[in-house]
């Protein structure tokens, strides 16, 4: 199931399929509505590949990707999309980027092995929080699943798949971030150098969820106002939202 296909600016321009459905419920998720209500349309792997190619050809993009929800929960569908894209990716010297939380790839080493059968693929793993405790607060899932995200990095590297981690540091403290960097370095020092840092973008619906849960980022960005908020300013934003 997908809720849209679009041209996006990420990675210097990419054809993007936004999938529906996830195995986590991250409070700051920008795709919360579609994942929680399962709003979308079912497409076959061939249709998904065709739509991605059409957008890439129209815009001259060299990157295609699946984003939005968690693509690995429909892993057979995902590999079939890749099968349909292989000839195009090789001929155009293009890249497919899989955006995932990595949990299933960490749990199922054979998923990494299956992905290694495809060329022109890279994986971006979005780590939720910098520690087990932060993971649990952000996702509502048991903290035991945090380690599967790190194991996914190792599994993919073991099969020589290009992979890098990203973390939304707005919800990490200095101690947990330092610990995460150490854990990444033990897997591969290049993961530390390649770590991508994101910051919470304070869209209204996401802000309300965080305020209700009492989860306050130390750093966030009000997108429309182009304003940076510290934790005290975010707390004041919560107070204002509670009055509306």
Written overview of the protein:
The protein is of the alpha/beta class and 244 residues long. It has two domains: 2-200, Aldolase class I (TIM Barrel); 201-244, no CATH class. Helix content is 46%, strand content 21%. It contains eleven helices and ten strands. Helix 10 (204-213) links the parallel strand 8 and strand 9 (219-222). Helix 2 (45-59) packs parallel to helix 3 (75-92). The radius of gyration is 18 Å and the shape is globular. The chain starts with a strand and ends with a helix. The mean pLDDT is 94.
Short description:
The protein has 244 residues and is of the alpha/beta class.
Write the layout of secondary structure elements.
Elements lengths: L1 E7 L5 E6 L12 H6 L7 H15 L3 E6 L6 H18 L2 E6 L2 H5 L1 H7 L5 E7 L4 H8 L6 H13 L3 E7 L5 H14 L1 H5 L2 E3 L1 E2 L2 H10 L5 E4 L4 E4 H12 L2
Helix pairs in contact: 2-3, 10-11
> How many individual helices?
11
Give the CATH topology of the largest domain. Answer: TIM Barrel
Mean pLDDT: 94
Give the count of structural domains. 2
Global shape = globular
Distance between the first and last residues' Cα: 34 Å
Low-confidence stretches: none
The CATH homologous superfamily of the largest domain? Aldolase class I
Order of helices and strands: EEHHEHEHHEHHEHHEEHEEH
Please give the largest β-sheet: 7 strands, mixed
Derived from helix and strand composition plus strand pairing, the structural class reads alpha/beta
By CATH reckoning, the class of the largest domain would read Alpha Beta
Query: Helical amount among residues, as a percent range?
Result: 40-55%
Total strands: the figure is: 10
What topology, given as strand order, has the largest sheet? 1-2-3-4-5-6-7
Strand content: 15-25%
């Amino acid at each position: 199931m997908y809720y849209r296909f679009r041209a996006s600016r990420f990675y210097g321009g990419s054809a993007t399929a936004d999938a529906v459905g996830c195995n986590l419920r991250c409070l700051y998720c920008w795709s919360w509505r579609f994942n929680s209500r399962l709003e979308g349309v079912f497409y076959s792997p061939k249709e998904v590949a065709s739509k991605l190619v059409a957008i890439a050809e129209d815009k001259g993009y060299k990157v295609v990707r699946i984003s939005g929800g968690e693509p690995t929960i429909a892993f057979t569908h995902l590999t079939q999309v890749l099968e349909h894209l292989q000839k195009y990716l090789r001929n155009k010297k293009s890249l497919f980027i899989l955006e995932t939380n990595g949990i299933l790839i960490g749990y199922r080493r054979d998923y990494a092995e299956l992905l290694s059968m495809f060329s022109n693929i890279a994986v971006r793993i979005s780590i939720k929080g910098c520690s087990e405790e932060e993971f649990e607060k952000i996702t509502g899932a048991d903290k035991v699943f945090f380690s599967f995200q790190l194991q996914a990095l190792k599994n993919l590297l073991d099969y020589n798949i290009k992979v890098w981690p990203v973390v939304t540091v707005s919800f990490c403290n200095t101690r947990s971030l330092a610990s995460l960097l150490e854990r990444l370095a033990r897997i591969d020092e290049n993961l530390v150098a390649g770590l991508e840092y994101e910051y919470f973008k304070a869209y209204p619906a996401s802000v309300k969820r965080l305020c209700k849960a009492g989860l306050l980022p130390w750093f966030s960005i009000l997108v429309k106002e182009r304003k940076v908020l510290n934790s005290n300013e975010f707390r004041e934003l919560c107070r204002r939202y509670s009055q509306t």
